């Protein structure tokens, strides 16, 4: 489904809710996260813009930080909503004392690949309509290792499934298709070597195709297909299938079952279920084209996830918006290890899952915390700063990275400083532990 790009004039700065559990009101964003992201403000519109926005790891980290904690910072370990930025770029939780980085517990968890390389991979993955293969990515980024490119793409594929995404609704076509080599002598649903893919396609009324869901299923029994329908389609929707017996119990699961019985030789499936068969042929073409048919069965679901992500955003005119969506989901996706990527539950033949060779990392650029962190800024309201009193000051500086920040009074500004004095604690509404640590604000 295409996402409308709302002109920037419509996203009037509206101070949104402050964050924090204890009434902390420190930063306010100029527009609501629910408002459609704006090209050139929230995401880069072109490669030139991408290059200028994400020239180093700090800029990437800053963007991820914004994407991940846009509404409220939460300690990834204990869930507390109050923490303090540290000079090393991490945040310390006020509740459990754990220090965490922006990339902790995301797909970038403990990555040794520079974030600039990750971002470039995300850009190349989304800027082309057909995506990119691991080999293509390795070449275009000049990576020393195929495995690095492969693992990055696979981690992004994990992030392409948004947790809690809405199920399809309205009228939905459901059928299975088979991907893999030709199998001689097999007819209908009999197959031994091909992978089975369950497909659900939503009607976009009055005509056309809406969203899709794809799942690799081990067989075409009701035990495999009914859970797929339940996960993909909202109960109460009309589900159109062929006469296959696995679907007979659909009406018992709260669906309106529109069963179209095909007679052998008449009404071929692409007439009865045209949308499913269109999606299936596009899927096969994509697997053969972009990935040269080299997709292993154990990793098929990851490719299905990518195809779904692309297909459901096919009407999006701004490719940068896909980049934004991908990173937005990557910033909240659970981390996954290389071993987890290789071994998929249900894999029958482990030799398919073996790594394609030695693993090597590209040359890593040393991580530097942003140079402007910890730099004292004069207090805009004339409050005496700690530096003026010869003590430590932790400055608060909001950089304009794709959006405008405003201070708690609603005044747009790029810099603001506070100190640890009681006046400022009171002003900021912080009622945490006393002392200097209590007053270090969020960046
Ligand atoms: Zn914590």
Could you explain the architecture of this structure?
With 443 residues, the protein is of the alpha+beta class. It folds into 2 domains: 1-158 and 315-443, no CATH class; 171-295, Ribonuclease H-like superfamily/Ribonuclease H (Nucleotidyltransferase, domain 5, 2-Layer Sandwich). Helix content is 28%, strand content 12%. The protein has helices spanning 47-53, 57-68, 115-127, 134-141, 146-159, 222-232, 269-272, 274-289, 300-312, 319-330, 338-342, 350-353, 422-428, and strands spanning 28-29, 83-85, 91-93, 99-100, 171-179, 195-203, 209-217, 238-242, 256-260, 395-397, 405-406, 415-417. A hairpin with a 5-residue loop joins strand 6 (195-203) and strand 7 (209-217). The protein is globular. It starts with 27 loop residues before the first strand and ends in a 15-residue tail after the last helix. Mean pLDDT is 74; it is low at 1-33, 344-354, 361-370, 385-403 and 413-443. Zinc ion binds at residues 75, 77-78, 80, 93, 95-96, 98. Residues 75, 77-78, 80, 93, 95-96, 98 line the site of zinc ion.
The run of helices and strands is EHHEEEHHHEEEHEEHHHHHHEEEH
Specify the biggest β-sheet.
5 strands, mixed
What level of helicity do the residues show?
A: 25-40%
Q: Roughly what fraction of the amino acids lie in strands?
A: 5-15%
Shape: globular
Radius of gyration: 25 Å
Number of helices: 13
Mean pLDDT: 74
Secondary-structure class: alpha+beta
Low-confidence stretches: 1-33, 344-354, 361-370, 385-403, 413-443
Tell me which ligands are bound. zinc ion
